[in-house]
Amino acid sequence: MEKKKKLFCEISPFTYAISLQKEILKRKLKNFLGKEKYPTKKREERLPVLISRHGNNMIKRGPGIDLRLQENKADNIRLACSKMNGLIISPGESFSFWHYVGKTSKKNGFSEGRVIINGKLVSGVGGGLCNLANTINLLVMESPLTITEIHHHSDALAPDPEGKRVPYSAGTSVNYNFIDYRFRNDTDQPVQLCTWCEGDSLCAELRTTKEYPNTYRLVEEGHHFHKEDNGKFYRVSKIYRETVSRATGEVVSRELNWNNHSEVMFDYSLIPQEQIR
Length: 277
Known about the structure:
With 277 residues, this protein is α+β, with helices and mostly antiparallel strands. It has 4 helices and 12 strands. The strands form 4 sheets. The protein has a 4-stranded antiparallel beta sheet, with helices on one face. A 3-stranded antiparallel beta sheet has the order 3-7-6. Strands 10-11-12 form a 3-stranded antiparallel beta sheet, with no helix packed on it.
């Protein structure tokens, strides 16, 4: 069997760093030439109407999980939350994760957490911010806002917590600054993004001034784990986004949002046996 040729970024840490800087410069040029209008106003007082709310425990514990990196991840998320909490996104304005978080360097206060490089979980400065990006994505998916940029990585970075599984629990990828998460407010009213931490819990809300005519929800079907010919386990499911009329309660539209096929990146012994097919 012919050996797969490595990409330039996969040859060594040095070539990866070169490739990284190239992508960062390309995105900076794209941002400079772009026409997006980014919000500049924050409001400490919350807007009156809740659109959606999500949260999670930032620190995962279990076999093979480095607790120090988990605690650093929580610190990174707390810092990033403070940069965007209370942000008002007016009609026509766009949100960019990296526009508000900035460069994830030690100089800017970020610590080493878990990052994914070339498909492997390793330590890196600013690691863990995908958790925050994914939580914001969950908020936006349950709103009429327009996602303009999203990237996916494995939805199986850690075992699901006890209780009902949340679709997209860990599937949104960000990497300074070229792998971004962005959305735009194409509605006729302002939206407020609230992000804060309470102890080791991440909390996030989208709020506005009056109710929208529809509500939105994620529905996951066919969720299971599957061992493939390469010996690796994958999480498999289909995730749909449904639009529901607030007036009638009827489903107005239903679209496949993500055909999930995510490599399991935690200890296989923690996969629930009843979920393996």
